[in-house]
Amino acid sequence: MGTLLFIINPRAGKAQIKSQLLDIADIFVKHGWRVDLHITQEPLDAMETAKSRGGMADMVVCSGGDGTLSETISGMIQLQNPPLLGYIPAGSTNDFASSLKIPSNMVKAADQVVTGEPYAIDIGQFCRERNFVYVAAFGMFTEVSYMTPQEKKNLLGHQAYMLEGMKSLANIKSYSMHLESEQMVLDGDFVFGMVTNTISVGGFKGLVKDDVALNDGLFEVLMIRTPKTAMELKTILASMIQKGEQSEYVYRFKASKLKITCQEPVDWVLDGEFGGSRTEVEIENLSRKIHIMTKMCEQ
After folding, report:
1. Would you list the DSSP string of 177-214?
2. Quick check: pTM over 0.90?
3. Given the residues 48, 273, 282, 284, the one annotated as active site
4. What is the pLDDT of residues 111-161, one digit of tens each?
5. What average pLDDT does the segment 177-190 reach?
6. How many CB atoms lie within 10 A of CB 122?
7. Are 220 and 231 in contact (CB under 8 A)?
8. What is the Cα–Cα distance from 96 to 153, expressed in whole angstroms?
9. Sign of CA dihedral 180, 184, 188, 193
10. Residue 222: helix, strand or coil by DSSP?
11. Burial zone of 95 (CB within 10 Å; 0-12 exposed, 13-18 middle, 19+ buried)
């Protein structure tokens, strides 16, 4: 079949790849692939490896969490002709794998890599210098979402955790912003915003609609205005729980490009990792930029 570059983050999740590596490699070899193995040693190693060695491979497969996937794609996207991508999720959240219906069982995911079909996905470009796979976000909930144990999320549900994060109005960090997109212009104070291409963010489902298309050239955008009173907070929570299209405080819309400016530096999170602190951000959808092996068409 060709050469398969296998990039592994051995520290992802509970390091379960260590006990299943031989079974996974055996699946690849049995399907005719020559396996070129690389174990990451430090942050950004997956990106550099995908960039430097991905052009010599027919497929790049990565195993790790969302951060490893994001790094790998960020390296591949710099290639003139990116090869096929395979993903074996091994993290604690695995948001994008959930959207792609990739099995959480690593051996089953490996089998899907070699028996699936190429599926085009959109990739996000952040400030023309970084890429993200499924989310760019700022404000509250970003740390709550990614630092909360999955068991606790499952127990409480995302609405309960939102309420926990917003229960003290005095502690809410607010940002005065101006946002421009093809169909929306917003000005005001915002407590949270995210640009996504997934149905699950930080392990929470319901923040975006379930009918998200991963290759339509559009992002799902969510912006939440800063509540000033307990009643406004109640309205925001009600809108989130009911997944309303719009409200006076919660904005949901689609965009292929957007620009956000703020009076002070804002910390951004890209695919669960720190993306920098900026006063001006430009985000663009790179439509159908990467082809990942899945069985989406069969489901």
Report:
1. EEEEESS-EEEEEEEEEEEESSSEETTEESSS-TT--T
2. no
3. 273
4. 999 999 999 999 999 999 889 998 999 987 665 555 555 455 445 454 554
5. 95
6. 21
7. no
8. 17
9. negative
10. strand
11. buried
